[in-house]
Design a protein that fits this description.
It contains eight helices and five strands; from the N terminus they run αααββββααβααα. It is α+β, with helices and mostly antiparallel strands. Strands 1-2-3 form a three-stranded antiparallel beta sheet, covered by helices on one side. Strand 1 and strand 2 form a beta hairpin. The relative contact order is 0.25.
Length: about 240
Amino acid sequence: MRGGAAAAAAVLIVLGAGVSGCKEDAIGSAGPEETAGGGGGGGGAALSAVDSLTVKGRAPKTGYSREQFGTAWADTDANHCDTRDDILKRDLKDVKYSDGKCKVSHGVLEPDPYGGKDVTFTRGRSLVDIDHLVALSDAWQKGAKYWDASKRIALANDPLNLAAVGASANRSKGDGDTATWLPPNKEYRCTYVAGQVAVKKKYGLWVTGSEKAAMKKVLSGCPGQKLPSGGNPTDAPKRFTAN
């Protein structure tokens, strides 16, 4: 999110700019950094970071609901804009507002990182989604079930785990992990998988054996891919609650 001490200190990198091949760009902006020492994955090569992730089986989905991760798009960074609009402002070009500062009414994904084509966002039309790179249901089954609400709310609103993407490609993903879903745009896969590794490392989420193998397969094709870091703290402010 924009604003807040963590985001203000971070190096800003635009998610959608110049995607081609297995880029070494960090995932996202308004927090994520390429270098070590940020609040997230720790910089360095994404491929080597895969080996730091714990491998376990997928836990049951029992008890999962979106409400376990708090109200959708909570303003956890207290910048007076909700998380959805923060990510739209970050990732779209030619942004226009309906209220002068926060509520995004129009913009363009140039290109949609998942589908590879330009997508125009107009508020009220569902052509652009804000995707959780690590789906909340997947997180629930790989550790988040055992967290307190503050950490789950933080994950759901962390810019390191969020991207504006074309709705068409995104809705085929569901709660898939790297082993079961990758963006149709092959040129973005290295960046996408590096983002998932960074989020899982930052929050201590585990991976399945097949997921780890799939991560390494993708990242072995781009061994110089940087691990994104930064984003928001892993605990949301106390004023936020979840059911």
